[in-house]
Amino acid sequence: DLNRKALADLAVHDPDAFAQIVEHVRG
Predict the structure, then answer these.
(1) How many CA atoms within 13 Å lie on the side-chain side of 14?
(2) In angstroms, rounded to a whole number, what is the distance separating the alpha carbons of residues 7 and 14?
(3) Residues ≥6 apart with Cβ < 8 Å to 10
(4) What is the pLDDT of residue 21?
(5) What are the strands, taking DSSP E only, across the chain?
């Protein structure tokens, strides 16, 4: 899954941005 890989890469390279996305997705 391309999206999941992109998120995994983001989690590694930019944890803060990843956390913001996770919070946004969870609502």
Answers:
(1) 8
(2) 10
(3) 17, 18, 21
(4) 92
(5) none
- Taking a C-beta distance cutoff of 8 angstroms, is the pair 11, 22 a contact? no
CA-based max dimension of the chain: 23
pLDDT tens-digit map of 6-26: 999 999 999 999 999 999 988
The set of residues, in sequence order, having a beta carbon less than 8 Å from that of 11 and lying 6+ positions away, is: 18
The whole-angstrom separation of Cα 22 and Cα 4 is 12
The structure tokens listed for 26 are: 């969870």
Taking residue 9's Cβ as centre, other Cβ atoms within 10 Å add up to 11
